[in-house]
Amino acid sequence: MDILKFITAGSVDDGKSTLIGRLLYDTNSVLDDQLEAIKKANRKNNDGTVDLAILTDGLKAEREQGITIDVAYKYFQTERRKFIIADAPGHIQYTRNMVTGASNSDLIVILVDARKGVIEQTKRHSFLAKLLSMKKVLVCVNKMDMVDYDQQVFTNIKADYEQLADRLGLENVDYIPVSALKGDNIVHKSVRMTWFEGEALLDYLEKVEFPEAKLSKGWRFPVQWVVRPQTEDLHDYRGYAGRVLGSGLRVGEEVIILPSGVQSIVDRIEINQQAFTEAENGQSVIVHLSTDVDISRGDTIISAAHPTHSDRSFEANISWFDSKPLDTAQLYLLQHHSKTVKIKVPEVLYKYDVNTQEQHYGSDIKLNDIGKVFIKAADEIPFDLQVDFPENGRAIIIDPRTNITVGAITIEQVA
Amino acid sequence: MDYLDHLEAEAIYILREVAGQFENPALLFSGGKDSITLVHLAKKAFRPGKFPFPLVHIDTGHNFPETISFRDQLVAELGEQLIVGYVQDSIDQGKVVEQTGKNASRNALQTVTLLDTIEQYGFDACIGGARRDEEKARAKERIFSVRDEFGQWDPKRQRPELWNILNGKINKGENVRVFPISNWTELDVWNYIKRENIALPSIYFSHQRDVVLRNGQWMAAAPFLQIDGTDTVDHKSVRFRTVGDMTCTAAVDSEAVELDDIIEEIRSSTISERGARLDDKVSEAAMEERKKQGYF
After folding, report:
1. What is the CATH number of domain A219-303?
2. What is the CATH topology of the domain spanning A2-207?
3. Residue B284 has what pLDDT?
């Protein structure tokens, strides 16, 4: 069994919370006392059935207003997979929450209202999916019950979306017609849409696999912590603890330590005090090197065969989360894995209109804006371009005056 | 990687970020299965080195004796430091007033003792075993969750948390609650306990016990529980699904004596884990309100 993380994008009106509620409800992931609490809350649909949307509304204000403010994480599992759903609000003023939820997902489910088709919001969500390099997009055409389960409606929307995907350069898009409210093609194949030959949503989610990375770019190992017991019997023990990004980290391999550029060789890999010859992508391990080198948190060990960039300036797409606009004169902090450096963002190259994807020049980057900027760092950062090695091409921006996370970047170009 | 390997690797990563980013962290240890799992994960993250944090237990004075003896034995085996904050001390100092009546519980008082302990030792990060699947307010909590000077959680001012990059920068007076097993479900924890062969206090397994019926739930008949002629006392085969203090944790009827039995029981259960927690039943937003005050 493995894990699939996905995000659902859409607004209140698209029936997003109902869709998630339906998935949880129909996979028996809602238990009696939770249902009882829902019944107590007494929120009903027009036809008298229980409003499943309430399952995902976690905060008091959200229940009172019937809206989703923040990202909520929901869990369910089947025999095949464990699922983690990031439920994020779809309105433009919550772009930051969508970006947050999407950053923690492999797949994005974009809901389209069958009556409305591809609208501005659909375009915005799709654009964000492209910017964040989502591995896969699933378009669910919802509310098919409101259009008499008409195949033509679905076919038209699909054709419209294909055009959009083409324009954005989105690959790996799939389509399912559903009714979250009535349960069509969610967990069970719909008997009212026999014309649809694909799988129901749950079946799809259980089986979907992601395209392999284009080619191996080696691995990167940001050091989080140095394990030094300093006991008598482990006097010389010096292990570098971290989580592997990428594949191919093995004993005997030649490595470079950044930023110092010192070279060494992997001497031992340990997990839970046992020795391994190799470590996989995503594993938390301890690495020992054959020579005595000075390494501390914030340094990155990389394979000598696959060097990263190690630069102080680059161009990046930026997503802004703070109510105070980006200040091109101010000092910020950039956190890239375990390394934090001072940066300036001296130049906004352009801002995107997230609805039309047009580039606007000479504008400020404000709350919920997305744009492209030039960044200058006080130290070298061992990064990759997002397009080459996504896991090593991202970072967050912190305002040192408030310590709040004010933005996120994906590195697009060496400047 | 298997899903448990993935969850484990993520939790170890988070624990190491705590070690790397904070000056004076602590691991909040309740003696329950989630915090015992955290200790196991900390061993994987830091051994053969020592833990870069002490274990901190907030003792209500109404804990199950089995939990306390388990705690002491575990700490002795680990060779790590244990700090205990006593709710009784907060009561004696007049900082909190004990509830009276039949449903009296010290659950709510713990928050004051916890915040005092954090302040006394100057902890800047407290690692906890809370999970997002437990409760809907928790579903929205970050992995690094910032608390203000008064220990309060403000759900509307949470920092965005992107990818696996965790921002542990805080202002003076603030501290962070860290939840390494946020993405685990109850079943994941049990499957992991089984796979890793982690020892647990005996009360998690079926045993014979005197229980009192309170508000439709079976409570352990403890000496400090007010029992009178109107109460139904029974002797039953029960186990505890969560382990809080004895005044707020109800028993469930169970014959599950092995881990496999428990896993099967949870799989087929129609009641959620916190369904046996009286502290959550107070209102629809009971957890959210307590979290805002500074609860775990």
Report:
1. 2.40.30.10
2. Rossmann fold (3.40.50)
3. 54
